[in-house]
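Why do we bother with a discrete structure alphabet at all? Because it lets us treat a fold like text: something you can write down, compare, and reason about line by line. To make this less abstract, here is a complete entry for dUTPase. Read it the way you would read a sentence in a foreign language you are learning: slowly, and without expecting to understand everything at once.
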Amino acid sequence: MATDYDAPRKTDDELSEDSIEELKSRRVDKSASSVDVDEAEQAEGFELPGADLSGEELSVRVIPRQADEFTCSRCFLVHHRSQLASDTSGVLICRECAA
């Protein structure tokens, strides 16, 4: 929150003069000014140009894990054996996760 250091400050007497009702009304005003927005509903209204991919098909050739590769136990990515950092009781960890 920004603070204006040049603004006059209230003395202790002025602070004690603030009534409870005034303080409560300030709190209600602050909560009334906040708006609860559902981001999912707001995102449905956006239409990006050229974003219609309904007619597109995704074709990816999946290759099984090779003999010189391993699956990291932390990130679950398949890496080459040269990326193996530790092999403790069958738990394989890649260099990136070990760092």
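What the structure line is telling us, in plain words: The chain is about 30% helix and 15% strand. The chain has a mean pLDDT of 81.
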